[in-house]
Fold SEC-C motif-containing protein.
Amino acid sequence: MGKGAGAKQARRARRSAAGDAGINPRQACPCGSGKRYKACHGAPGGVTEVAVARPFEGLAGECELVALREFVPSATVQLKLASDPKRPVTLGTVLPLASAGLVRGDGDEAAFIGLQVQTRSLDISRDIARAILWTQDANPGDVLSVVSQDDEHTERLQDILDVDAPFEPEIHDNFNWWLAPDAEPTGDVALSLERANEAIMPTKRVGDAAYWTLAGDKAYLRWVRPEPEEELMAALARLSAAGGLTLGEGSKYAGSFRAHGLLVPVWDLDNEMHAREWEQPVAELGARLTEALVDKPLTSEERRARDGLIGRQVTIR
């Protein structure tokens, strides 16, 4: 066999593997390297690990974890570990200098892990679990910049968390929770805190995994849904065909995106309305959506509505 034929076979094999993993070879590699998949984990002789499509599947907080990972700027939640920890662990959206983990010093010794971090593997669940395990043996003042892939830990979040524990994040207007009570930031931490607080977008939780965000002169609602995509799209289509895919006056369905295996519908909102004014409309839409999740064929009108909704989908992870 000639070199040209061998190269073609290798390219076909890589394309096949990428397709099996649900990854476009020309898209950014899910590992967070910034390279295209074909030049990173999809490269010849590269890492053969397959991306985990739903890294948080099986956890009661799956939808909230997706939201905190992708678009909630500042939030914390106390994690409930399956076994008694040496020290409690708080999950935060972003830590100082985008660190993966830290243990406060100055006698505080509170442990934090970051969710919005660069990952080196294709399983975010495993990387975050490694950061949690790191906090248990770290010394006060230690910082974990990037999760190491060269250790013996293979546990995932599903292995070390109480999978059924309630998961209700606390949403913050700033990142001052980075600091211990009465502590004053200095050096790089002070600069990072200042920049983070200046860039934060007002965000409020208006329902389970439903978040209102004000971005400049525009407001949005992003709602991470737990249903399988095909079932959810059918339900959304039924509502759309019936004129019920709305949050009421001042709202418009904008489309949806996929993140970590789940679908996230998005609505444009009246930016002059307060976040709490959307809580009741979200609850009412949720009830209509539950009723629309039925196992029956779509009508011709509903199929047309579904086709239109699918045309407004994108994938970010």
